[in-house]
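User: We ran a pulldown and think these components assemble together. Before we commit to crystallization trials, I'd like a predicted model of the whole complex to look at. Sequences follow.
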Amino acid sequence: MPEGHTVHRIARQFARDFVGHRVAVSSPQGRFAQGAALLDGRELLTSAAVGKQLFLGFEGGHVLRVHLGLYGAWDFLGVVSPLVDGGGAVASLGAPRVRRSVRMGEGEREGDEGAEAEDFPPEPVGQVRVRLATEQTVADLRGPTACEVLDPAATAAALARLGPDPAVEDDVRARMADPHAVAAATGGAAHVEPGETDPAVADAVASGPGTAADVMVQRLTARGTAVGQLLMDQAVVAGIGNIYRAELLYRARLDPHTPGKRVPAETARALWDDWSVLLADGIATGVMLTREDLDEAGRAAALRDPAQRHWVYGRGGEPCRTCGTPVVVEEMAGRKLYWCPTCQR
DNA sequence: TGGAAATGTCTAG
DNA sequence: TAGACCTTTCCAC
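Assistant: Here's a predicted model for the assembly, 345 residues in total across the polymer chains.
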């Protein structure tokens, strides 16, 4: 059940342990047999996340696009490198080592330590849609909403549907969105007409740094739709899910029902800036900790205890941490929305 | 053992 | 807006 930060961590894990390796690709469950056959034995050249989607670029111009949806997850088994500059549970383990499992997606957790070498590679457990394997490391994918092999043109089209993501450098995004560059980088042929590159990215790149924020502000303030819905719209801004949505709105003291058109540009910009901070923190720790009021001890406690991590998310009926008003939980576009009717006015 | 819920998205009506 | 889809986990019975 990932939001954007988790997918960025997954992309980094693949960059550490799979990029540069020839990868055995299989579908133990059988539902991805054709795609697996297409990728099997190819070298993985690139690993990138945009919003909640993962793009793995293989030699030959094939890109594996994965969206975990509500309950998809990757399990990493065998030798799993710590995310050294990422901090959090994985990085704290130090040097690469044999671990039974590091699960990413459905709430990360550490696996049991000390598996024997002869356990590798382990038998797939449950409904494993895809298994990627190097000599030392296995990644098992379960329950994704999307799992498909794309050519460079389809990759560009998938990227074009996504709004800006603060954790994606403009140049990285532009290279990924440029089908010719993707083709060159992955050794494949480009089959895309000029002009198919994501216009948002083209704007951002053409106008220089900082304009990804402008794209988000423009898209958020252009429509009469409730800001609570717009933040979940991946074409407006990529990577925000139900938890970050509720918490960002609370931190901005913004009523989720406010139409986008009535959100001042500076407020929209502040939402982008705050999202950038929360996302970077989430990528670093692997935990969605959205309370900025905690001291060091409180933060450490919240990292251990999920009940302490949020201002309003998951706290329907409980007193607001600021004013004591019961937190409201309601349905917005089919998802549960948590907010404080006193603070967010 | 069965049902509901979960950090999501798409399509039909 | 309702329903479908993907999978696992937890809780009530």
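Chain A is about 35% helix and 20% strand. That may be worth checking against your pulldown data before setting up trials.

User: Thanks, that helps.
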